[in-house]
Amino acid sequence: MKEAKIRLCVTQDLAEGQTIPLDQNQAHYLFGVMRLKPAARVLLFNGLDGEYLAEVVEAGKCKGRVKCLEQTRPLQMPPDLWLLFSPIKKARTDFIVEKAAEMGAARIMPVQTRFTKSDHIRQDRLQAHALEAAEQCRGTYVPEVTDIRKLDAVLADWPSDRQLIFCDEALIGAKETLQAQSDIQKWAILIGPEGGFSDEERAKLSALPYVTKISLGPRILRADTAVVVALTLWQSTLGDW
Ligand code: SAH
């Protein structure tokens, strides 16, 4: 059997024997760019049904069809971890979304804090980055990227059973703090903007019953580095690593 290297995220249901029509972009990528011919194998996933090996049955210029042969992997859900971050410059925000998807965040939520510089994001672009990251890292799940909301509004309807990790550059110590709460199932991580949190935000967050404050070490990290470090710390302490 020829090895299937290309992974494609599709929107249709996947099941053995199912034929999947390709849209113009997908057909262009598979047949124009990657030069696949009928009978070539690809891997498909849709974020719900796991991963399927599929065979090209029609390869047109701007359309085509593939047929699901067999499931190659079941759906693997990430742990129940959200990432809340304050958007920074475009390329760095793209990096944050890509890394969060690769590192197993289940939901990615841009939030606007007092010192957030960009109050506008292209949610569709960021969602596409999360999807590409899942395609690339053999994920079978695509984290949802929500539209940007004010941090206050997010906290106002915060689910009471979810613990929020407030990454505060003014503190020391983290791993033990998290280990002590290993009975909690649902988590979220909050990373601030380049300007950090305001005193008011810091006081408000510190007083919330569902907030755990942690430090990410003695050096002040850039926001995009802090995202990767916090996800690593959480995954290796409480997650699926
Ligand atoms: N301008 C701020 C730093 C902001 S860093 C200052 O100089 O004080 C951006 C975000 O990354 C912070 O809001 C925090 O959430 C996170 N962060 C960076 N370094 C950290 C550290 N050592 N411990 C905990 N959080 C950190």
Characterise the protein shown here.
This protein has 241 residues and is an alpha/beta fold. It folds into two domains: 7-73, Beta Barrel (Ribosomal Protein L25, Chain P); 81-238, Alpha/beta knot (3-Layer(aba) Sandwich). It has seven helices and twelve strands. Strands 6, 7, 8, 9, 10, 11 and 12 form a seven-stranded parallel beta sheet that branches. Strands 1-3-4-5-2 form a five-stranded mixed beta sheet. Helix 2 crosses helix 3 and helix 2 runs parallel beside helix 7 (223-238). The longest helix has 16 residues, at 223-238. The chain binds S-adenosyl-L-homocysteine. The site of S-adenosyl-L-homocysteine has 16 residues, from helix 7.
